[in-house]
Amino acid sequence: MASHRRPKQPSRTRVTVLTTAAAAAVAFSAQAANAAPSEKPSKDEVKSKVDALYEQAEQATEKLDGAQEKQEKLQKEISTIQDNVARGQEELNKLRDGLGTMASAQYRTGGIDPSIQLFLSSDPSDYLDKASTMDQLSAQQVEALTKIQSKQRELAQERAEASTKLKDLSATRAELKKKKDEVKAKLASAQKLLNTLTAAEKAALDQEQANAASRSTSRVNLGNTGSASSRAAAAFAAGQTKIGSPYVYGASGPSSFDCSGFTSWAYAQAGVSIPRTSEAQANAGTRIYSESDLKVGDLVIFYGDYHHVGLYAGNGQVLHAPHTGAVVRYESIGNMPFQFGVRI
Q1: How crowded is the C-beta side of 41, counted as CA atoms within 13 Å?
Q2: What is the pLDDT of residue 294?
């Protein structure tokens, strides 16, 4: 006969747990439904975040400029070495041909000396070390063999140097790509933030930028401050002709600039070559640690890592290429953390 058992009832503890979980789920759903959407950042908050991203992009830009400069230098050095190797190989071939001509002459006059046969069938570097019949060679043959040995050593060294520099170039190119990607990422993040603004807010930011440039230009009076030198005055005068030119990362003129591209271009117009990056420009002359001692045309270095540079304009002002989205303009030296000036 079949057994009829009563279904097992859930325990009171299990019912309590399930009831509590269900209540929590309902409460969470209600909170999620009633939660207010995250507030859109204000225009000023966006500007602050964008400015921070622009500063980070400028830091990466100066590293990019340094990698670019190193790449160009390495390419020139490698090209020079390769040209030297090509010329050296030609000279080596001529030396070997000359020795071959001497051997041919010996053959016609009575056979090739065994020592010459040994040389022609082996590496002359090994030959000179091993030959025990040097006294059987003529002075002209000894000189030719010595030159060949010397030229081979020289070519081996130059080829090794070229190989090392090619590896360095490969690493530099990788660093260059990394910094380019870093700059692009920062600028893309800044643009994404700017895209959250309304058309009216964007127009207001653009107007603030234009007003800042206009105010800084109108309040600079250079009559009260002398120039550091005639060359510094010429560099500053050249820089003034570029007021209003846009900041573009990696640019060094003549129509757009980054910060160190602007200062190096200005000094180049005065016939003075200074390093390409702000970090290198910080070591390009005599440091001036007091703002009161600065003169027109001195380089002015900002931030602890020296990632920004401008030209001193007198009366507490600096002429510089500020950051992406801005143009070459005057600005108060107090708007950025001043480190020191550099007198070229």
Answers
A1: 14
A2: 96
